[in-house]
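Renewal narrative, Specific Aim 1. Our central claim is that a sequence can be written position by position from structural information alone. The example that follows is taken directly from our test logs and has not been curated for this report. It begins with the structure tokens describing the chain, in the order in which they were read.
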């Protein structure tokens, strides 16, 4: 991040820490909101950022900008308080928040564990990059931040379509398919992989046996010999075509709405694309990030505490499973 912007954020952080440590300042902040007829449950306080928590810095800036007028008036009455942020600096921070806000939505989507996320990686990165390119900040520092973020995008995500998992998951998502896959080589590899996977499982045993038995029954002395041979070849060709055309039909079919659930949609199309449905379930189940695994470790730490140290190791997975169930289950 641009050094000057970091200095502005450090100023906001010092102001937040001062309100957190000063009982007088915190009381004045609360009383100012009560004087403005803010409901008891709507009283706001300053939010601090945590280095290990995503988007916490953005939340700190948003809360400060929302309360900057009230906060500035309180700081003026306390000589030992941190310096007030100037109007020009606040204008820069507003543009910084506008640039960073979409990243919050993307991280929330990518950290999900209750719906499909791997297939969203490529589309969301592409959309986020285009959003950044269209953003038109007016302050030099915000322009530098935009340029810095675009450079990081190029460095980190330029070759994301070469990642087999993400490309395949995106292609098998009925909402995206190849809409965002503009890397021709990666798209070709994905289609070839799916075609091979379908062909490897295309003939159930009973179908193979029926064709084999029909071929064995061809009698060279029979007048229908030619017909029987053509019949066997037609059977083999039709089965091969039906399996390969499954992929072609899937590609030609229209996309579904973005708001629809990917898994529920595959249930509806299971009869039309039986082989692709199995592949979709295999690839769409993979989470896009390690956030769900980290949440699991955090839950385990909250369950297995010093006061609960006698919990048996065989019971911990069961407790974690129960903890993962919805409350209405």
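The sequence written for that structure reads:
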């Amino acid at each position: 991040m641009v050094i000057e912007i970091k200095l502005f954020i450090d100023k906001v952080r010092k102001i937040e820490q001062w309100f957190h440590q000063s009982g007088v300042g915190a009381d004045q902040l609360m009383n100012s909101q009560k004087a403005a007829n803010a409901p008891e449950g709507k009283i706001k306080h300053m939010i601090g950022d945590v280095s290990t928590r995503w988007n916490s810095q953005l939340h700190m800036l948003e809360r400060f900008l929302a309360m900057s007028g009230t906060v500035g008036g309180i700081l003026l009455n306390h000589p030992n308080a941190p310096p007030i942020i100037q109007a020009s600096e606040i204008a820069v921070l507003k543009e910084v928040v506008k640039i960073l806000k979409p990243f919050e939505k993307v991280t929330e989507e990518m950290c999900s564990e209750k719906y499909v996320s791997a297939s969203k990686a490529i589309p969301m990165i592409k959309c986020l990059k285009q959003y950044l390119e269209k953003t038109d900040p007016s302050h030099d520092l915000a322009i530098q931040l935009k340029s810095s973020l675009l450079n990081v995008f190029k460095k980190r995500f330029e070759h994301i379509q070469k990642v087999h998992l993400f490309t395949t998951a995106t292609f098998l998502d009925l909402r995206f398919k190849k809409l965002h896959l503009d890397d021709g080589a990666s798209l070709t590899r994905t289609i070839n992989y799916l075609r091979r996977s379908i062909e490897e499982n295309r003939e159930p045993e009973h179908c193979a046996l029926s064709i084999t038995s029909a071929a064995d029954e061809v009698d060279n002395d029979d007048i229908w010999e030619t017909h029987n041979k053509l019949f066997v070849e037609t059977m083999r060709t039709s089965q091969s075509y039906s399996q390969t055309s499954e992929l072609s039909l899937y590609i030609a079919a229209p996309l579904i709405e973005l708001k629809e659930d990917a898994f529920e949609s595959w249930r509806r199309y299971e009869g039309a694309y039986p082989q692709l449905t199995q592949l979709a379930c295999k690839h769409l189940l993979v989470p896009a990030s390690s956030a769900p695994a980290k949440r699991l470790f955090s839950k385990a730490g909250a369950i297995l505490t010093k006061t609960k140290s006698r919990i048996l190791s065989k019971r911990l997975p069961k407790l974690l499973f129960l903890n993962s169930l919805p409350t209405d289950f």
